[in-house]
Amino acid sequence: VDQTYIMVKPDGVQRGLVGEIISRFERKGFKLTGLKLFQCPKELAEEHYKDLKGKPFYPTLIDYITSGPVVCMVWEGVGVVASARKLIGSTNPLQAEPGTIRGDLAVQTGRNVVHGSDSPENGKREAALWFKEGELCEWTPAQAPWLME
Ligand code: GTP
Ligand code: MG
């Protein structure tokens, strides 16, 4: 089953949007298997965003992500990676559709409140990067038979 790494970025935490953002994934029906508040060290931010190294905004991106605590999450479910990207909306919040997290709650690309993995492979890679073995929880939500036939 697919896994995605979702992270409330420091602006989302500072703005008090943690509950709102978690709620959107929870209400959709995905399964939360990992959750923590965490001050990201620079080395981890660089590893997470290594594909963007060399971009003009890369140094400010690393400063942004390490500027305060983030909320790290892993969500599981069939099709969760692409669906979470839809719930999050376009990278530039001014172009994100109303109803999406960025469309409803943000205005700037450099302050776009949330991260979501962009492929199932990166979902697994990022879950393993941000969480230690034993921090993720395998469980069966009581509502499971009411979500999936
Ligand atoms: P993530 O879910 O955070 O990975 O966003 P994304 O997949 O929609 O975008 P991408 O992976 O291309 O970029 C990662 C993050 O870098 C974005 O979410 C922004 O926070 C930041 N970023 C991307 N492009 C720009 C830019 O042009 N300017 C600034 N300031 N930040 C950018
Ligand atoms: Mg990305």
From TrEMBL:
Its cofactor is Mg(2+). Its EC number is 2.7.4.6. Residues 1-138 form the Nucleoside diphosphate kinase-like domain. The active site is at residue 115. It catalyses: a 2'-deoxyribonucleoside 5'-diphosphate + ATP = a 2'-deoxyribonucleoside 5'-triphosphate + ADP; a ribonucleoside 5'-diphosphate + ATP = a ribonucleoside 5'-triphosphate + ADP. Keywords: ATP-binding, Kinase, Nucleotide-binding, Transferase. The keyword ATP-binding applies. It is an enzyme of class 2 (transferase). ATP binds at residues 9, 57, 85, 91, 102, 112. Belongs to the NDK family. This is Nucleoside diphosphate kinase.
